[in-house]
Amino acid sequence: MTKKIVVETTINGEPTEFLCEPRQSLLECLRDVLELTGSKEGCLTGDCGACTVIVDGRAACSCLIMGPEAQGKNIQTVEGLATGSTLHVLQQQYLEHASLQCGICTPGFLMSSKALLDRNPHPTEAEIRYALAGNLCRCTGYDKIVRAVMDAAKSAGAKMGTGATTRGPSPKEMTEQFVKEGK
Amino acid sequence: MHAINYEAPKTVDEAVKLLAAHGEKARPLCGGTDLIIQMRAGVRRPEYVVDVKNIAEMRRISFDLQHGLRLGAAAPAIEIHENADMRKYYPGLTEAAHLIGSLQIQSRASVGGNVCNGSPAADTTPALIAVGAKCRVVGAKGERLVPVEEFCTGPGATVLRPGELLVEFQIPSPARHSSDAYLRFIPRNEMDIAVVGVGAALTLDLDDERCVEARIGLGAVGPTPIFAKDASQALVGKKLDNAAIERAAQSAVAASSPIDDMRGTAEYRRHVVGVLTRRVLAKAAERARMSDQSR
Amino acid sequence: MAASTNGFKVIGTRPVRHDGVDKVTGRAKYGADYAFPGMLHGKVLRSPHAHAIIKSIKTDKASALPGVKAVITAEDWPVLSDKVEQGGEGPVNLAHLSLNLLARDKVLYDGHAVAAVAATSPHIADEALRLIEVDYEILPPVMTVEAAMKPGATIVLPNLRNKEEGPDKQTNIAAHIQFKRGDIEAAFKSADYVVEREFKTAMVHQGYIEPHNAVGIYNADGHGTIYCSTQGTFAVRGLTSALLGMPEGNIKVVPAEIGGGFGGKLTVYLEPLALLLSKKTGRPVKMVMTRGEVLRATGPTSGSTIRCKLGATKDGKLVAAHIWMGYEAGAFPGSPVGAGAMTIVAPYDIPNLLIDAYDVIVNRPKTAAYRAPGASNAAMASETIVDELAEKCGIDPCEFRIMNGAKEGTAQTAGPPYKRIGFLETVEAIKNSPHYKSKLEGPYRGRGVASGFWFNVGLQSSAVVNVHTDGTASLVIGSVDVGGTRAAQAMIVAEVLGIDVNDVRPLVADTDSIGHTDVTGGSRTAVTTGLAVFQASQDVVRQLKERAAKVWEKKPEEVTFENGVLGAKGEGIKPMTVKEIAGRLARTGGPVTGRATVNARSVGPSFASTCVDLEVDPDTGKVQILRATIAQDAGKAIHPSYVEGQMQGGTAQGIGWALNEEYFYDDKGTLRNTGLLDYRMPTCLDVPLIETVIVEVPAPGHPIGSRGVGEVSIVPPLAAVANAIYHATGVRMTELPMSPPRLLKAMLKKRGAAESQAAAAGR
C-alpha cells in the first residue's frame, strides 16, 4: 500500500478535500471516502455509465478516473443536482414519466442528461439517444427515459418542487397526449 | 488493484525524466480508458503511473494550412470533435476520434492513448494512417518521428522503448481537393470495439477526376493496424470509377489477415473490409470533390 | 395504451412512486451503498478452469498479507446432503447450492468459487486472492447439450443419476420430462403442411446493471444480519440458514434497494459467505461482485437446442406438434426446460402433441431464472414455425394465431384447462394497432409478429396496514420492489381506504418485521402481495367500522363505508372520514392495524403479442429495429406507467437476446466475454420508442382482476425479430443470436444458391 495523498476538488459547488490511495478510483473516493453513494458501480470498465459524473462540464465515467486525477477539478454528482429541496427539472421529469424501475442506472442517466442539456438545450430524439448511448438500462428499454429528457428540454428553466403532486402536464394529460399521438 | 505511485508532471521533460527513471515500472496515464481497466484486470501492473494530462504541449490542437496539424497526443477525443479546423480539414480523423466510445469515454480518451495501447482494433489508427500521420516520440536521448503505420508492432505492443513518450502527431496539411473519411463496423450502434475499421484519404484532380494521392488504413483485421499500400497505390493516377474502387476494395481485402474471435469471424471481416473500403472511398471522394482548401 | 380506471379511483392512475425522490437524488440505499464501522471487504477466488479436480488449496500466504483477516474454503462450512428445501420459486437442492457457492473436490465451470477472503480494503482482498495457491488437475470440459448427451461423454457430476437411466448409470442428463396427448403420427399424416427445424440458442445473462452484493454482520450471540440486494429476503434467510447450519430465526435479512434482478437474484451467492466471514472475523463483511464475476459465476439462462415440428391443414388449423428440447442446466441440475416445454405451444389449441425435454449438465455456471425462464428459447422455435405455416397457408400471421388461439376451456400443455385468458385480445390489439396497420416500405425491411405465454405464480405474502392518528397509513410488506410495485401496493391501500395515495407510506420490511413473503418473481408481486394488501386494507375497514359503531352506539353491520367515509342511518349521525375516525382511535379501543397473509394459487397466466419492424443492411448483416409494439394482457393495470415499463423492458431484453447477446466460451471452456463491452446489450441508440397496448381481460378470482405483468414481455421478441428478418431478407434464421456475421453468412448462402439456380436455369 502506498501512502495516501490529499486531493483538493470542488464537488457539487463545495470545496472538498479528501484522502485517498492513488489506486482508488474517483468512484471509490466518492462512495467510500466521501460517502456520496449516489454514483453507482456497474462494470468498472466504462461500459455501463452507472458511475457517470460531470467533470469540468463533461460527462465522464468516474470508474475510469483515479482519485488523484480529480485534483483541481469541478465535479458534479447526482447528490448536487437538486437545489436545496427543489428537484432539478430532469429529476422531476424522470419521476413524472416513470423513467426508472429499479433505479440503479438513474443517477448516471441524470448526469448524462444534464451534461447534454447544459450544452444542447433543445436536442432531437436522435441527439438524446446518442448522448445517452453510454448509459445502459436493463429495466426500461429507454423509452420513458428519452421521453423524460425530451420533456425536460421543453420545460428547461422551470424549477420543480419536491411534492409528489404534479406541476406541468398531469399524468392524465400526458396519457391523453400519448393516446392522441398514437403512442 | 496493486499499489501504485501517481505522478503528474507539467512538462514533457519532466515526464520523460520520470519514465526514464522507472523504465518498465512506469506507464504514462492519459485518458485512462484502457490503462485503468488493464490495471484492474492485473494485465498491466506499473508501479508508477505518470499522468500526462497536465502537459500543455501534449493537449494542444494547432492547425494552419501551411504547416498542417500538430495534434497533442493527450487531447481528449471530444475536443477534437469540437474543433472547427479538425472537422473541416480532417473529417475522417475527427470521425474516428468521435467513435472511440460513448461521450463519457470521449471526454477522457485521447488519440495518443488509443494508438499507444497498441490494439489492432483502435479506431484512430486507420484514420491516422490515411492522413499520413507521423508520431513524434520523445525520450531521454532525443526525439524521433515514426510513421503511424509503423508504430504498432503487434497486439498491445508499440515501438516505444522504456522511457519514451508519444508527445504529438504531425499531420501534413491536406492538399487542394483532398479529404478523408473513416468508417467502422460494429454490431450495435455505439459502445463496441470495431470489428473492422477502414480509413481513407484521397486527393483528386477535379479536371479529369483522377486520383492524385490515396492512402487506405485498415483496423481490426490483422495483428496491427495496416497501411494497405497496394490498395492505395492501385488508385493513384486512375479515374475514381466503380471499377477502380472495386479493385482497391479487393486489394484491401487481400492486405488484411483477420482472425476469428468473439467479435467476428475471419470470413466475415474479410467481406466487410471490402464493403467498408468501397463505402469509405466513396465518402472520401465526395468530400474531396467538395473541399476547396484555399491557399 | 393507457388503461381506463373503470370505476376505480386510484387504481389505474399514475402517481409518482413513493421511493422516487430518493432514487433520483441518490439517497436510496442499494446493497453496495451500506457501510458499517469496522467493516471488512470480502472477495472470492474463482477457478480459471471449466472442469478440474482440486488437488490442494494453500491459503497461508494470503492469510499472512497485512490487512487480511480471514480466508475460507468449503472446509469451513457443513457438508450438505442432497436435501431439498424451498428456495426462491421452488425446490432447491442444498448440496448443489453449497457446492456452487464454494467448490469441494472439483471445479465445474470457469468462475466457480474456490475460496474467499476478508480484508481491510477491497484492494488488499484482491491482492490476497493472488496469493492463494490452488493445484488443479484439468479435466476435459463438456460445453454443449450435444457433447454432454453423447454416449461416452465426460461425466461432470459423478453422483448424478436420472430415473430413466437407473441408479448405476453415470450421466449428464439430470431429467427427462415428457408431455404427450393425442396421436401425433396420425395427425401429421393428416396435415397439409409440416415444417420441422432445429434451433440453437446461446446462453444469455439477465444483465441487471447492479452486481450482486451482501453485507454480513455476525454477532457474538449467534445472531446474524444480512443486508443485500435480493429478490427474496426470506429465500436468502432460509438458504443461508441451511448452508451455514444456523437456525433460521437467528438470521435477519434486510432488503436493500435492488438494481435489477429478472430472476437472477432469487438465490444466494455472497450472502452466506459474507456472514461466515463475519463470524470468523467478528466484524461486518461487505462483498460486491465485479461484472466479470457476475457474468462468469452467477446464473445466466440456458442455451438450448430445440427441434420443433408443427403440422397444419391448408385451412390453417394446427393439428400436431412434435418437439425435442435440450437445455443447458450448467454445472448443477435445474434448467427451465420444463417450463419451456409447458410454454412452447401454450398459446394454441393443438390436440396432438409429444414434447420431450431434457435438463443437461455442462461445464457452465449453474443457470438461474431469467424472466419467464425457458419460454423465450421455446417461443423462438415455435413462433417462427407458426409464421412459416401461416405463410404456406396464405394466412396473415395475426389471423393464423387467432384461428388457433387458446381461450377459456382450451387444454393447457400440462394442468387444467385455461380459465378466462386474454391471448386472442393481445393478437387483436396488434392487428388493430397503428403500427400493424401502417405500411412498411423499402428494400430489406420486414415486419414480424410473435406471441408468448407465461404463468403467474401465487405463493405466500403478508401485509400489514397501520392507521396513524392523522388518518394516513403505513403499509408494511415483504415484497422487494424491483420495478415500482411498492407504489402499486400503496395504491391498493388508498383505493380500499378511500384516502389519497400520497397519504400511504409503503415500506419494504426485513424478515423480522413482516410475515413470510415469497420472492419478487414469477410475476406475482402486484397480484399476490396485492391480494394480501387488499385483504389487510379490508381488515382495516372492518375495524374502522367497529370503531364508528362504538362512537355511534350502533352495531358494526349497520355502519357503511364508501369512498373513505363511514356512515350509518340515524338521528344526529354525522358521517366520518377516515381522517376523522383516526383521531378517535385511542378512545375507541386503541390503534388500528390491519393484517393479512395469503398462500395464493395462481390467478392465471398472461399472454403478450409483439410486432417488430426492422431493416437489414444486405452487405453487413446488421439489423436496425425501426419500430416495436407490444400488446400484453395485464388483467387490470394498477399503475399503468409501471406496467408499460415492464412491457418495454422485456421487449428490449428480447431484442438484445435476438440480435447480439451470447456467451462466448473458447475450446478450453473459458468465458471470453466477461464484460459489457463484449456481452452486448442494447444501448439507447439500438432501440426505438416502444409502443405499448395494455389489454385488460380481468383475471378471475382476483378482487382487482390483475394478472402478473413482469415476465411475459420477453417471450415474443426473439421470434418477432426472426420473423421480421425473414420478411426482410427471405432468410429463416434458426440460430441465436442473429448477429451480423451469422445473418450475413445466411444471406450470402441464399444469394449464392439463388445465383447458381438462376445460372443453371439460364443455361
Descriptive overview:
The complex is a heterotrimer of chains A (183), B (295) and C (763). Chain A has 183 residues and is of the alpha+beta class. In chain A, 32% of the residues lie in helices and 14% in strands. Chain A has helices at residues 26-33, 89-96, 106-119, 125-131, 143-154, 171-180, and strands at residues 5-11, 14-20, 52-55, 58-61, 74-76. Chain A has a five-stranded mixed sheet, with helices on both faces. The model of chain A is unreliable at 157-183 (pLDDT under 50). Chain B has three domains: 5-51, Uridine Diphospho-n-acetylenolpyruvylglucosamine Reductase, domain 2 (2-Layer Sandwich); 56-171, 2-Layer Sandwich (Uridine Diphospho-n-acetylenolpyruvylglucosamine Reductase, domain 3), CATH 3.30.465; 178-290, CO dehydrogenase flavoprotein, C-terminal domain (Enolase-like, domain 1). Chain B is 36% helix and 25% strand. The longest helix of chain B has 25 residues, at 266-290. In chain C, helix 10 runs parallel beside helix 11 (375-393), helix 12 (397-404) packs antiparallel against helix 13 (423-431) and helix 15 packs parallel to helix 16 (525-552). Chain C is globular, with a radius of gyration of 28 Å. Chain C contains 20 helices and 28 strands. Chain C has 763 residues and is of the alpha+beta class. Chains in contact: A-B, A-C, B-C.
Produce a short descriptive summary.
The complex is a heterotrimer of chains A (183), B (295) and C (763). With 295 residues, chain B is an alpha+beta fold.
Question: Could you outline the blueprint of secondary structure elements for this entry?
Answer:
The complex is a heterotrimer of chains A (183), B (295) and C (763).
Chain A: E1 5-11, E2 14-20, H1 26-33, E3 52-55, E4 58-61, E5 74-76, H2 89-96, H3 106-119, H4 125-131, H5 143-154, H6 171-180
Parallel strand pairs in A: 1-5
Antiparallel strand pairs in A: 1-2, 3-4, 3-5
Chain B: E1 5-7, H1 12-22, E2 26-29, H2 35-41, E3 48-51, H3 56-59, E4 61-64, E5 68-72, H4 77-82, H5 84-89, H6 91-98, H7 103-106, H8 111-116, H9 124-130, E6 134-139, E7 142-147, E8 152-154, E9 157-158, E10 165-171, E11 178-185, E12 196-205, E13 210-219, E14 226-227, H10 229-235, H11 242-255, H12 266-290
Parallel strand pairs in B: 1-3, 2-3
Antiparallel strand pairs in B: 4-5, 5-10, 6-7, 6-10, 8-9, 11-12, 12-13, 13-14
Chain C: H1 20-25, E1 40-46, E2 52-58, H2 60-64, E3 68-72, E4 84-86, E5 91-93, H3 94-101, E6 106-107, E7 113-119, H4 122-130, E8 133-138, H5 145-149, E9 173-181, H6 184-190, E10 193-201, E11 213-218, E12 224-228, H7 233-244, E13 251-255, H8 271-281, E14 285-288, H9 291-297, E15 304-312, E16 318-330, H10 337-343, E17 352-361, H11 375-393, H12 397-404, H13 423-431, H14 434-437, E18 445-454, E19 459-467, E20 473-477, H15 485-497, E21 504-508, H16 525-552, E22 560-562, E23 565-567, E24 576-577, H17 578-582, E25 593-600, E26 606-616, E27 623-633, H18 640-659, E28 690-695, H19 717-729, H20 740-762
Parallel strand pairs in C: 1-14, 12-13, 16-17, 20-21, 27-28
Antiparallel strand pairs in C: 1-7, 2-6, 2-8, 3-7, 4-5, 9-17, 10-15, 11-12, 11-14, 15-16, 18-26, 19-20, 19-25, 22-23, 23-24, 26-27
Helix pairs in contact in C: 10-11, 11-19, 12-13, 15-16, 18-19
